[in-house]
Design brief:
This protein is of the alpha/beta class. Helix content is about 40%, strand content about 15%. The strands form three sheets. Strands 1-9-8-5-4-2-3 form a seven-stranded mixed β-sheet, with helices on both faces. Strands 7-6-11 form a three-stranded antiparallel β-sheet, with no helix packed on it. Strands 10-12-13 form a three-stranded antiparallel β-sheet. The longest helix has about 30 residues. The two termini are about 15 Å apart. The chain binds pyridoxal-5'-phosphate. The site of pyridoxal-5'-phosphate has 14 residues, from α3 and α4.
Length: about 400
Amino acid sequence: MSDFKVRDDWMSFCLPDISEAEVDAVGAAIRSGWWAKGPRTIEFEKRFAEYVGAKYCVGVNSCTAAQHLALLAKGIGPGDEVITTPLTFASTANTILHVGATPVFADIDPDTGLIDPKEIEKKITGKTRAIVPVHYSGLAADLDAIGKLCDSYGLFLSEDAAHAVETRYNGELIGHQPKGAVCYSFYATKNLACGEGGALVTNNEELAAKARVLSTHGMSAGSWNRYGKGGSWRYDIEEPGYKYNMFDIQAALAQVQLARMDDMQRRRFEAVEIYEQAFRDVPQLRLQKTPENCHHSRHLYILRIVPEMLTISRDQFIEELKMRNIGVSVHFIALHTMSAYVKRYGFKPEDFPKAYAFSESEISLPMYSTLGKEKAQYVADAVLDVVAKYKK
Ligand SMILES: *Cc1c(COP(=O)(O)O)cnc(C)c1O
């Protein structure tokens, strides 16, 4: 047996970073009496657009809503095909189905987990209308190559930036002067979190206006203020829309988190440094590669095991970490293996071999700003302990 000492208490995979400032901001929003969509939401939309460097931001209640609205506002629907990655969360492809279009998966680059533009090109047909790349784990998808495909084939680009609030590509933040739509998540576990929330960012005025109307039942613009002075009781329903808007309690939280983001990122990077140092030269472990023109936001810490070099499976590896009181996760269980997609399209795991192999060997380690160096070192030591015990 090794001399590794198991800690007494359970370590969560993820914890939110909530300071008194968030609590105060929520209190102020509630006390103001305006707690649905109102001035704080408008202010957050303005600040977030400024932060990423885009013209318009529509605050919504989830990234899923933003993704649905982006496709709807672009008029994508039945008969259309939309290309995306199988290494993602369900909403990326679910929302393609929600508009009545067909999700078409393109395999990934196994060094990064990002959708591979060469695989995308193979999947383009006369019915393809859009590409939905995911900035997986906080890396940026290859936007130069994907942008070129969009230009040559006349396709809409809707980026899944749920992990990418601080991600940079060619030196600019994701969302900077965007080509199409960029969809963010402010869900509890994300880098900028407000419990539940999201945003659609774009430079396209018409797309922003349409998404905004569709996000509040299809009500004519400005009706959020129909109870305020200068507001009007009269409104029109331009289209049967959805109830997707952000509201002021969310926006109050999101504003504070936006201001604290650099500091939270800096603290995540301390943990990244510890992990990378510990795993760099271990042949049984494979680290994610960061392309040179990309700044990784480190929303997730992606570790892969090399199954041929260990006597235990990935699932058993996870059990070993659990026995050492560490919560971990997997990002993602490949979407084409989920029963809803297997039933609909008859996919086999090997249909997207790289995404499947990636998904089956991946372990997401704890990565959040309140983790701290000591716990990160504990996680690193535990991983090395499991490797030492089960290496071939
Ligand atoms: C979390 C997540 C989403 C969905 O975000 P919600 O705000 O919960 O709707 C979409 N895509 C990816 C890659 C995610 O991780």
